[in-house]
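Inverse folding, one chain.
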């Protein structure tokens, strides 16, 4: 079975085609804010390169984020359209999981970190062993300084490999503040479609797939537009004041 995989959660537009768990080809194009224009042409070109027609695709895998809200929505929407048109299976994969998979040759702790803007990072901590990943925390968003404290509390001075595009901004901070921190090479800083596909093949072999109607991005936090709506509309403002009141009661 041919599998088409792609991820648009970061500045990298990445597409891969595999068969029975073997990578046949991958294209990676740096395209900040250009995923809508790039994704389908890249896909067509790659399919032609590997000698595969879109109708030969038996399943589709898509990175669900977290990451760029717009980028993730584009990827999920295109995946849904292809699945509905082709009547194929679909598998949604966390983009943080795909990042961890890219360095799963390292046995030990791995922390995937994606720039969340607004001085925060999306992250998840994993245990890697013999190419397999095991998630140890939820997908979260925190200021980088708080992530440092959290990892120091968790890893108890063990080595932890950090991977992801948040390293472009926070590598010096992480190296200084996180005990045992090691930084992955920049070649691994973006989720790659090949790793999205690998994780999807594993799920398909277990008989797992998503209902395309329920396929949704992993946002982790409320999108800015929704947050602004909540703050500026009458109904939203009431909800926001109630939310702040509840959070204040917890402190």
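Residues assigned per position:
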């Amino acid at each position: 079975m041919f599998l088409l995989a792609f991820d648009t959660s970061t500045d990298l537009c990445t597409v891969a085609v595999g068969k029975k768990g073997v990578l046949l080809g991958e294209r990676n194009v740096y395209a900040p804010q250009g995923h809508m224009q790039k994704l389908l042409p890249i896909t067509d070109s790659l399919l032609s390169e590997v000698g595969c027609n879109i109708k030969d695709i038996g399943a589709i895998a898509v990175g669900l984020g977290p990451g760029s809200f717009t980028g993730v929505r584009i990827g999920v929407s295109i995946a849904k359209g292809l699945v509905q048109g082709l009547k194929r299976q679909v598998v949604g994969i966390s983009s943080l999981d795909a990042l961890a998979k890219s360095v799963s040759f390292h046995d030990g702790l791995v922390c995937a970190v994606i720039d969340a803007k607004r001085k925060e990072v999306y992250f998840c901590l994993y245990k890697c062993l013999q190419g397999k990943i095991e998630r140890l925390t939820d997908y979260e968003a925190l200021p980088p300084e708080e992530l440092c404290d959290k990892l120091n509390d968790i890893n108890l001075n063990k080595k932890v490999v950090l991977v992801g595009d948040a390293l472009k901004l926070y590598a010096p901070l992480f190296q200084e503040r996180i005990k045992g921190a090691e930084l992955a090479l920049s070649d691994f800083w973006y989720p790659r479609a090949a790793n999205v596909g690998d994780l999807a093949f594993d799920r398909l072999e277990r008989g797992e797939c998503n209902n395309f109607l329920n396929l949704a991005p992993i946002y982790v936090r409320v999108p800015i537009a929704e947050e602004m709506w909540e703050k500026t509309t009458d109904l939203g403002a009431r909800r926001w004041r109630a939310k702040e009141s509840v959070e204040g009661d917890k402190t």
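The chain has eight helices and eleven strands. The chain has two domains: 2-96+191-214, 97-188.
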